[in-house]
Amino acid sequence: MIRNNIKSDFPIFSYWESRGKPLIYLDSAATTQKPLRVISTLEEYYSQFNANVHRGTYELSQIATDIYEEARSKAAHFINAPQPESIIFTRNATESLNLIAYAWGLNSLKEGDEVILSEMEHHSNLVPWHIIARHTGAVLKFIRMNGDYLLDLESLKKNLTRKTKAVSVVHVSNVLGTINPVKEITALAHEAGAISIVDGAQSAPHIPVDVQDIGCDFYAFSGHKMCGPTGIGALYGRYDILEKMEPFLGGGEMINEVFPTTSNYAKPPYTFAAGTPNISGAIGLKAAIDYLEEIGLKDIEEYEMSLGDYAAHRLAEVEGIHIFRPHTTGTGVISFTIDNVHPHDISTILDSEGIAIRAGHHCAQPLMRKLQVQSTARASFYLYNDKSDVEALASALEKSVSIFSPRRINVVK
Q1: Are 310 and 330 contained in the same domain?
Q2: 23 and 140 inside one domain
C-alpha cells in the first residue's frame, strides 16, 4: 500500500507553487519528480567519490568503478535480467532503441526483410526504423489497434512471415495507458524466427517487469521516468545477440586493441560504452530503483490502476470530454479532448490553477491520426498523486468548459 505522506519524499512539492497555488503535477509520463534520496545520492557522489571509472588504479577510481558497476547489477536485478553484463547504460530509452536499430538492424537486415511495429508506437520506436529501412530496403509492417485501444494480435499473426526479422512494440502506451501483452507477442515473434524488442519506458516505472518471463531479446527503459536523473537509461539485450552486434559508437573504453588502421572491441556491455559514461546518472538510477523497490512495484501498479480508473470515471462527468483509454488494462495515463476547447488551451487554463499536464501529439503522430485528432490533453498520475489531485483536475476542466462554451444569443423578433 502506498503511504499517505509519500509526497513529502519529493522536495519540489514543498518548494514550488504554480500561480500562487500548490503544484499538482500530472505529467509523469514525460518525466517524474525526484525523491530526496536520489538528489542526495548525486550530491554525495560528486562531493565524495567523483572519479572516472574503469581507468584508474588509484583507490578513488576503484571506489567509483565499484559503485557504478553496482548500479548495473541493480538495474539487471530490477528487470530480472539473467546477468549484469546484459545491461548497457544509455542516455534514455530513445538511445537504447536507436542502438538496437543501428547496431543490430543495420547489419542484420537486407532488402525485403520485415520489421513489425504497432500503431501505438512512440516516435522513438518509429523513426530509427524509418532510417534503417531506407538504408537496408527493409519493410515496416504494423499491428492494428482495435476500437478499445488494444492491439489486435490476429493482425500480428497475419503480418508474420518468413521474412519477419524483428517485432518491436511498446509495453505501455504513453498516450493510452494500454498494457500490451508483450509475453504473447514475444512468443509469436520467436515462433516466426524473429527477435522481440520491447520499449519499456512507460512500464518499468509503473509495473513489475521480468524480462526472462517475457522472453524478449531487448528491453529499453529510461531513468528519468522512474524517479531517477535525466540522461540515464538502460538497455537489456540477450547476451548472445549482443556479442554479435557491431558497436554503436567508437572511441575510448569500448576497445580491446587499437592499431593505426584497425581495431577490435571489448566484450559486451563495454562494446557499447564509448567514452566516459554518465557515472552519476547510473548511481542516481540505482538510488531510484532502491526507492521504488522499497515501496514495491506491485503496490505501485495496483495504486496507479485504481487511481487511473477513478480518474477516468470522474473525468467522464465533464461535459463534452472524450477519453482515449482501454476499459480493461489501463494505467495512470488519461488522454482526452474536450469539444470546442483546444488541448493547448486546456493546458493553459489548468496551469493557472496550479495543475501541470501535457498537451500535444505526445511524440505519437501516427497514433493521433488513428484516433482522428491532431492532439490530446494528457494527465499522467504517479505514486505521489491522489484522489484530491483528480478532483482538482476535474474542477479545472469544468472551468475550461464554462469558459469556452458557446453563449446563447436571444434574437428579438
Answers
A1: yes
A2: no
Cell output for 182: 508483450
Asked whether residue 356 is domain-assigned, the answer is yes
Long-range (24+ apart) CB contacts under 8 A made by 308-314 are 308/177, 308/332, 308/333, 308/334, 308/381, 310/387, 310/390, 311/379, 311/381, 311/390, 311/393, 314/390, 314/391, 314/394
Domain, as residue range, for 229: 38-293
List the grid coordinates of 303. Answer: 495504486
Closest CA to 239 of 200, 211, 268: 268
* Cell numbers linked to 136: 537496408
Residue 169 has which C-alpha cell?
Answer: 512494440
Cell numbers 500562487 label which residue? 20
Q: Which of 293, 314, 330 is the last residue of a domain?
A: 293
C-alpha cell at 235: 538497455
Q: Listing from the earlier edge strand, what are the strands of the sheet with 164-170?
A: 87-90, 233-237, 218-222, 195-199, 164-170, 114-118, 139-143
User: What is the tens place of the pLDDT at every residue in 299-322?
Assistant: 999 999 999 999 999 999 999 999
Separation CA 66–CA 87 (nearest Å): 16
Residues 391 and 272 in one domain: no
Whether residue 301 sits in one domain with residue 262: no
The set of catalytic residues is 363
Count the Cβ atoms, other than its own, within 10 Å of residue 148: 12
CA distances (Å), origin 18, targets 349, 394, 400: 12, 18, 18
Quick: pLDDT tens for 110-169: 999 999 999 999 999 999 999 999 999 999 999 999 999 999 999 999 999 999 999 999
How many residues are listed for the chain in this entry?
413
